[in-house]
């Protein structure tokens, strides 16, 4: 474990806590894409299939359980909780996210570390996570003004994978046989997708103005 | 050291 990876995991956890706070405090999921939340639930379920078979550390197991439980809880809130469900804007959240699932799985069938069930689902989860934010970014562009908590949620979610890239560079330089191309390339693509969001987020922070993504 | 489990990251 290095400082970049720890910072990445904590930033990821923070993004989830900010989203939970937004939904709990405002009893609303306006500006939040249910489809992105569903994709993240699939990402965690597919990536942590080895949760009970492959013990790495207490930290690792604890975080996996937190990520799976929180992503399922958020999807449940948006789909089932009467007050939150009412604020979900399905006319804005129209990204065909099942195409992302299909494309990621297809790619994982061809590009993986080993042709085993766990490895294919792991690669699938890596590719899917890279594009999982797309429905959310599209929704932010459509919904015009973005409330602070949702903006912070997306910012921390994008920043965590950027910190992971620093972690991979650090590990590549310090560990003799460290190579993880699938996660690295996918992580760079994932972080790049946030580039324009980061730009507008920085502008809004600098001008102390409302975050607004151009349509 | 043994080949570190390649899935030690979240």
Explained architecture:
The complex is a heterodimer of chains A (215) and B (10). Chain A has 215 residues and is mainly α. Chain A has one domain (3-206). Helices cover 72% and strands 0% of the residues of chain A. Chain A has 10 helices and no strands. Chain A is globular and about 45 Å long. The model of chain A has no long low-confidence stretch (mean pLDDT 96). Chain B is largely without helices or strands. Helix content of chain B is 0%, strand content 0%. Chain B contains no helices and no strands. The relative contact order of chain B is 0.33. The mean pLDDT of chain B is 66. Chain A: It is a multi-pass membrane protein. Chain A: It holds the Pfam family ER_lumen_recept.
SSE blueprint and pairings:
The complex is a heterodimer of chains A (215) and B (10).
Chain A: H1 3-26, H2 34-47, H3 58-79, H4 82-86, H5 97-110, H6 117-131, H7 134-142, H8 148-174, H9 181-193, H10 195-206
Chain B: no helix or strand
Transmembrane segments (chain A): 58-78, 98-115, 121-141, 153-173, 179-202
Signal peptide (chain A): 1-25
GO cellular component, one term (chain A): endoplasmic reticulum
Kindly estimate the percentage of residues of chain A that lie in beta strands according to DSSP: under 5%
SS summary, helix count of chain A: 10
Shape of chain A: globular
Radius of gyration of chain B: 7 Å
Radius of gyration of chain A: 17 Å
> Share of helix among residues of chain A?
over 70%
| Helical residues, percent of chain B | under 10%
Average pLDDT of chain A: 96
> What summary fits the major beta sheet of chain A?
none
Give the N-terminus to C-terminus distance of chain B in angstroms: 21 Å
């Amino acid at each position: 474990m290095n400082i970049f990876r720890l910072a990445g995991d904590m930033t990821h956890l923070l993004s989830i806590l900010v989203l939970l706070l937004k939904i709990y405090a405002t009893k609303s999921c306006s500006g939040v894409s249910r489809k992105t939340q569903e994709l993240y639930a699939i990402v965690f379920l597919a990536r942590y299939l080895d949760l009970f078979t492959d013990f790495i550390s207490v930290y690792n197991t604890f975080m996996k359980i937190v990520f799976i439980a929180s992503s399922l809880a958020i999807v449940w809130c948006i789909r089932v909780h009467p007050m939150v469900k009412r604020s979900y804007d399905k006319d804005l959240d129209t990204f065909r996210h099942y195409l992302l699932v299909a494309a990621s799985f297809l790619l994982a069938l061809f590009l993986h570390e080993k042709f085993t069930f766990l490895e294919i689902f792991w690669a699938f989860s890596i590719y899917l996570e890279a594009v999982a934010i797309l429905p959310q970014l599209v929704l932010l562009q459509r919904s015009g003004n973005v409330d602070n908590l949702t903006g912070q949620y997306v910012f921390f979610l994008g920043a965590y994978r950027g910190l992971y890239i620093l972690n991979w560079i650090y590990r590549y330089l310090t560990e003799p046989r460290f190579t993880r191309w699938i996660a690295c390339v996918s992580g760079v693509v994932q972080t790049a997708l946030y580039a324009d969001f980061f730009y507008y987020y920085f502008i809004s922070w600098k001008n102390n103005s409302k975050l607004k993504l151009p349509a | 050291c043994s080949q570190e489990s390649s899935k030690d990251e979240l």
